Amino acid sequence: MKVFQGLALGRAWQRRCCATVYHLGMGSWSTPLLWAAFLVGAAATWAAGVYLTHATDALDVRWRLGETLGGMLLLSIAGTLPEAAITVTAALSHRLDVATGNLLGGIAVQTAVLAICDLFTDDDKPLSYLVGSLIPVLEAILVVAVTSLALLGTLLPANLHAFGVSPASIAIVAVWLAGITVLRRIRNAPRWRISMPGSVPGRSHRRLPHPKRPHPYADAPTGNVIAVFAASSLVTLVAGVVLTTAGTLVADRAGINGVVFGATVLALASSLPEISTGVKSVRIGDNQLAMADIFGGNSFQLTLFLVADLLAGAPVLPHAGAAESWLAGLGILVTTVYSASVIIRPERTYARLGLDSVIVMIALFVGTFGLAAAAR
């Protein structure tokens, strides 16, 4: 009993400290200064995210992290560090609307990064035509599965929990672990043979050498790579705190709903590293990796609801409303469009965008207006 009381006191102390920083620090800044801080945080997230991705890939090549469960967790955490920083800051500040908006809204926003990747492919075909693999489809199914669990979790009563953790948050983590285990086995020993004429999948894993480009930090000592990894992780975490704090203050002053802000502006800022790495992947022909990275990051991102529950001391998902449910449905919709397109393989482009990307952009445009209506 004393242990649980200590945990509760610890959470209360964390929230008081975060609230103190929130109000006595940036809370007294002018709105233009807050916007400047937000933009600096977004730029830092972008730059640090690129270095973090390169350092993570280099360490994976040297230590083969993806072959162990702990290594796969480390790779997943590194890939979603901006979202993790925003989630932790929002949960400690007890801004559950911002946390849920960022995590659920980030699914749709980060999936739309594939439309940007469409613009930079070296071929006149859509990205979904060039992928040439069913692995991204399976990863998309995992995204749909965990997002559906999050949607079901919003319907549970708030008093149904185990030490402040929602059963839905636990189920999301369990399904994600099972899913990546299955995906790893399929990658190592696929049980089918497919033929997709005209496809240019590129590498199936970043650990494989690229035929034309050297691997990041190939000649750098491992100690230097670890230093880059640590420094970029620290910058990303600090930038996430700045983004959340400055952004929520600006949103509150402007009267913007926290869910709407988290699902749009904040989700876009945290997805900047994915834009950079995705564009780079398609430009060097790693089309399969570009799509797989997006879906892989999206599925792991929702496991952060467990972290949010633990830090907030209460289930986060049951406090969600119509806006959060709308975001979950929108994320499932755009994920389904791209995964189906990998199988259907539309060939025609419209201003360098595949039909799937056009549909996704329209869905996001209409979905933003629907989100505003649901939030009201």
**Number of E-state strands:** 2
Strand coverage percent: under 5%
Note poorly predicted spans: 1-11, 20-24
Structural class: mainly alpha
What overall geometry do the principal axes of the alpha carbons give? globular
- Strand arrangement within the widest β-sheet reads 1-2
Compute the separation of the termini in Å.
Answer: 41 Å
Instruction: Summarize model confidence as the mean pLDDT.
Output: 88
What about the largest sheet? Answer: 2 strands, antiparallel
What series of H and E elements makes up the topology? HHHHHHHHHHHHHHHEEH
Number of helices: 16
Distinctive features:
mainly alpha; two-stranded antiparallel ribbon; 16 helices; globular; 376 residues; disordered N terminus; 1% strand; single chain
SSE layout:
Elements: H1 2-24, H2 31-63, H3 69-79, H4 81-92, H5 96-111, H6 113-119, H7 127-130, H8 135-153, H9 167-188, H10 222-254, H11 258-270, H12 272-283, H13 287-301, H14 304-312, H15 322-344, E1 349-350, E2 353-354, H16 355-375
Antiparallel strand pairs: 1-2
Structure overview:
With 376 residues, the chain is an all-alpha fold. It is 73% helix and 1% strand. It is built from 16 helices and 2 strands. It has helices at residues 2-24, 31-63, 69-79, 81-92, 96-111, 113-119, 127-130, 135-153, 167-188, 222-254, 258-270, 272-283, 287-301, 304-312, 322-344, 355-375; strands at 349-350, 353-354. A two-stranded antiparallel ribbon has the order 1-2. It is globular and about 55 Å long. Mean pLDDT is 88; it is low at 1-11 and 20-24.
